[in-house]
Amino acid sequence: MTKYPGAGEYLPNTDDLAEVRAAAAHCHGCDLYRDATQTVFGAGSPHASTVLIGEQPGNDEDLDGHPFVGPAGHLLDRALDDIGIDRATLYLTNAVKHFRFEQRGKRRIHQQPRRTEIVACAPWLTTEIDLVAPELVICLGAIATQAVLGPKAKVTELRGRTTEAEHYRVGATVHPSSVLRAPDRTQAYREFVDDLTRLFEAG
Ligand code: URA
Ligand code: SF4
């Protein structure tokens, strides 16, 4: 397994989130920067009381430079709308900041980030959480959950509940793109919204 140098050596010594974001644009902490268009850093309120963490930028985010602007982001927007949460009050980011994909003809097919890439990219995520200093962290899907709670953490066991971490409460639900792929989308969407409702209430 490739051992990457990781993002740590690209981290500036600052507590200014904008400076951290600027530094992340030049990160070569693992190989994912090579084929991706750009670093997609977190976005939203820098003093949000809730941080939402996804997996990695998708095709649309890679081209646009901002998290959750594609189909999964639209589903998330709709769910937040339904429970009366204004996205602008949140901070949204991803466990991994570059898009990992496989080129098939003209299409770029999403690939899950490897454990080594999650670990390599973790300094950005840790720094974002430290600087935003939220009360609640919500992990969307397995990759975010494992990035925050360790490789053995399981969304199926944790979803919809929060536990106390050192400086915040942390909870998990499924990734919005899994709702889009679910055989029964209506049911999957309802469960996703139920989880988010309970997580926001608990935080
Ligand atoms: N999926 C994610 O996990 N994050 C994004 O930013 C977009 C899609
Ligand atoms: Fe750096 Fe993360 Fe991109 Fe790898 S995925 S190059 S660690 S920002």
Automatic annotation (TrEMBL):
Keywords, in A-Z order: 4Fe-4S, DNA damage, DNA repair, Hydrolase, Iron, Iron-sulfur, Metal-binding
Domain of life: Bacteria
Uracil-DNA glycosylase-like domain ranges (all copies): 41-197
SMART domains: UDG (SM00986), UreE_C (SM00987)
Keyword Hydrolase in record: yes
NCBIfam families: UDG_fam4 (TIGR00758), UDG_fam_dom (TIGR03914)
Family as reported in the entry's similarity comment: Belongs to the uracil-DNA glycosylase (UDG) superfamily. Type 4 (UDGa) family.
Name of the molecule in the record: Type-4 uracil-DNA glycosylase
Organism field: Nocardia halotolerans
Taxon lineage: Bacteria, Bacillati, Actinomycetota, Actinomycetes, Mycobacteriales
